[in-house]
Amino acid sequence: MKKSIFYHAGCPVCVSAEQDILELVGTDNVEIVHFGESKSRIAEAEKAGVKSVPALVTPNGNVLHINYGASMADVKA
Amino acid sequence: MKKSIFYHAGCPVCVSAEQDILELVGTDNVEIVHFGESKSRIAEAEKAGVKSVPALVTPNGNVLHINYGASMADVKA
């Protein structure tokens, strides 16, 4: 199975959601991207349709925005 | 593993998220509750902390609000 990608920005909401997603989907099936550590991947996430974090991009390209941590504008600030 | 519960209200956003969640988490690991068919379970969902649908309540009781279909107020209307 192609991996999902979980984008987050280290906020408390994000970290909590990350734990849940990893547990539900399985650690091996998700790539975790932390924008604080990987600023260069913000553009990729926006291109995929990510509007806020945390968000999970599924293997078929759908974007699931989970709870609400921060907007992409906040992430870039 | 205890099942997660996916609450939704049949809106297009909900149905799309349902497909994604079932694929990611596995059909056997999720109970699907459609408020249109199970009005009686709205109170249970609210008690669990569901504020909008679609939402996934994880086995450990966390609520993941996914995208945004409708508020619980809309669901009850």
UniProtKB/TrEMBL annotation, chains A, B:
Gene3D superfamilies in alphabetical order: Glutaredoxin
Protein name: Thioredoxin family protein
Higher taxonomy: Bacteria, Pseudomonadati, Bacteroidota, Flavobacteriia, Flavobacteriales
